[in-house]
Amino acid sequence: MAEEEKRQIARTLKQEYDEKQARLRNLEQQKRAVEASLRRAAFTAAQLDEMPEDVRTYRAVGKAYFLQPKSAIMGHLEEAVRGSDGELKKLSSSREALAKAADSLRGELTEVVASLRRG
């Protein structure tokens, strides 16, 4: 294989590797956002749990607040927690697959660069 071909392969592998690393960073950001949402929902549920059943409670929807029974809000919070758990599992499995692919690309890139240095 000609040296210029190896350089082109190295550039292509480096570009793919950089794209995978950017996607990994994006997945980590998404994971942190979901974890924050999960903590917020769990904290709100814990605070509401201590209150009596007939307390007047409001649920924020966008910039508006709607009066709802405590049980409805608790149900919504539990649903949010379940959804966040599922999302975290999906993000973790996606991250593992992407990390494996990035490691594979890094290995290939290392081999190509080493062959360029040798020859």
Automatic annotation (TrEMBL):
Q: What InterPro entries is this protein classified in? A: PFD_beta-like, Prefoldin
What domain of life does the native source organism fall in?
A: Eukaryota
Q: Does the keyword Iron-sulfur apply?
A: no
The UniProt GO MF terms for this protein read: protein folding chaperone; unfolded protein binding
Q: What processes does the entry annotate via GO biological process terms?
A: response to cold
Q: Which UniProt keywords apply?
A: Chaperone, Coiled coil
Residues in coiled coil: 3-44
Tell me any Pfam family this protein matches: Prefoldin_2
Protein name per the record: Prefoldin subunit 1
- From which source organism is this entry? Chlorella variabilis
